[in-house]
Amino acid sequence: MPAPPRYPSRSTTARRRQGGSGARWRGASRARCPRRRCWPTFLPTGTLLAFETLLPAASGNGTCSAVSVVTLRVLLALCGASCFVFHFTDSFRAPDGKVYYGFVTPRGLSLFRTGLGVEAPREDRFRLGFVDVVHAVMSVLVFAAIALSDYRVSACVLPGHGKEMKEVMESFPLMVAAVCSGLFLMFPNTRYGIGCLAA
């Protein structure tokens, strides 16, 4: 007699359905990822988080008083400076298994703290180069595009220019994203500094 046909079990069918729906969901999430939420890969991890956290208090929720304008400008300056400076930091893993951070210089890596009994590496990849300056400038541009796209920032920092800012921000973020993405592909980042993954 021929063997009876074998049907997939309920658990197998459920796993297949979950796998298919999970793949579709992951694909949809990548396709729907807003450009603004994909940009933080260009920035130090904590900078954008600190900016978004402090922005409501610094701007007074859009009231644009004299105090809030000054506070907002200080916040923008600090976040922009951190985007620039953090691109000149790097790290390495010492033989003891610990990760040490420092600034890249023309002579090599300069540790933040001295007297730790660890010799800083002097390899070429830890030396300051033109690519580091390019990455720092691009990071500041990306942060500026993200910050100015918020109405609380544009309305307080540039009052009376709402119409002009609206026209500019329709194309400026797209231009910054396209230019910076191309430059990052041409000059990939090899640093593992503050705000990046450990070495």
Automatic annotation (TrEMBL):
Listed Pfam families: DUF679
Location within or outside the cell: Membrane
GO (cellular component) term, any one: cytoplasm
Membrane topology: Multi-pass membrane protein
A Gene Ontology BP annotation from the UniProt entry: endomembrane system organization
Region (Disordered): 1-28
UniProt entry keywords in alphabetical sequence: Membrane, Transmembrane, Transmembrane helix
Transmembrane segments annotated in the record for this chain: 70-88, 128-148, 168-187
Superkingdom of origin organism: Eukaryota
Family: Belongs to the plant DMP1 protein family.
Stated name of the protein: Uncharacterized protein
